[in-house]
Amino acid sequence: MKWEDIQEAYCGSMGKAVYFPGHQICGAMGRTGVAITNVENASASGSSAFREAYLAIASGSCDVALAMGVDKKALAPPKEGEKADDQPAQGKPLRFSPVMLFAQMAKNHMQKYGTTVDQLAKVSVKSHFNASHNPYAQFQKAVTLEEVHAARMVSDPLTVLHCCPIGDGAAAAILCAKKVAGKYTDKLCPTVIGSLLRSVLPDGDPTFALTQHTAKLLYEKTGTGPEDLDLIELHDAFTIEEILYLEALGLCEPGQGGRLIDEGVTSLTGKHPINSSGGLLSMGHPIGPTGVGQIAEILWQMRRECGKRQVEKEVNLAMAHMVGAGGVCALHLLKK
């Protein structure tokens, strides 16, 4: 494929350190007149860029589209003699701490359902193990249950190993109309059979209920169900999120997410592997690229190109799930 073959491009980014990144990247590749759209949708920015590329092809607007994401965690430190105020504004500080919010959600889940700190910590152990076999992961060292418990406390019961990092990153995926895909590759190319994005419902819950609602719509639209999922790349900025979203996606009843962790259902050898990449917890969460990185992992898993982190069974149907601050849930369903 040549750069000139790309007809539309969508770039997901929070714009923390680079303005209009899609235009800068595409401009560096060469000015071809390609249609460029920058997408900002919090943690779901990359997922939203992928959806826009998918919709462009599905609508017949183009046959080849690029979805990408890029972010840098901060601007460079001020140079000597330069004040920090001389640099472009990076936005106002958050009025709340996400880790405090999810720590409270963890406490509520533990109190209501008996979920244990060990079950939360096992999510981190699994994710770091998967990432230890991922050359693209930010954290590539496996951790033990004891290390997760003994790590620095951030907000009880979440230690730092229960929390995702923020770093620099980039990811890209090229989508093609089925009629032209064979022109560019003879490798397996999964089909996007469903793509949905929804925002907060009247009940105001931006996490569990929103994911549950979006998943229900996607299952109905595609004629699939949670039991069909061979792999899920899932939003796990904090360990409690994996347990919550297991339940919201219908993989188990509310309150039973911890049990699935204990039983190994979410491991590489389990019935429903979760975050073979290492997830946000260990693969990393640069924000803009995260959702596109999920798509790349699903593609590699379906092609069985993942080496020691390869899911044991065949991956025929996989889901990419992201939520974003402000209240958005993006789901993509890919079929082999």
Number of helices: 11
User: What does the average pLDDT come to?
Assistant: 93
**Strand arrangement across the biggest beta sheet:** 2-1-3-6
How many distinct domains?
Answer: 2
Uncertain segments of ≥5 residues (pLDDT<50)?
84-94
Which superfamily, in CATH terms, is the homologous superfamily of the largest domain?
Answer: Thiolase/Chalcone synthase
**How does the helix and strand content classify structurally?**
alpha/beta
Secondary-structure element order, N to C: EHEHEHHHEEEHEHEHHHHEE
Give the class-level CATH name of the largest domain: Alpha Beta
Helical coverage, percent range: 25-40%
Shape: globular
Question: In what range is the share of β-strand residues?
Answer: 15-25%
- Characterize the main sheet: 4 strands, mixed
The first-to-last residue Cα distance is 22 Å
The CATH topology of the largest domain corresponds to Peroxisomal Thiolase, Chain A, domain 1
**Number of distinct beta strands:** 10
CATH architecture of the largest domain: 3-Layer(aba) Sandwich
Radius of gyration: 20 Å
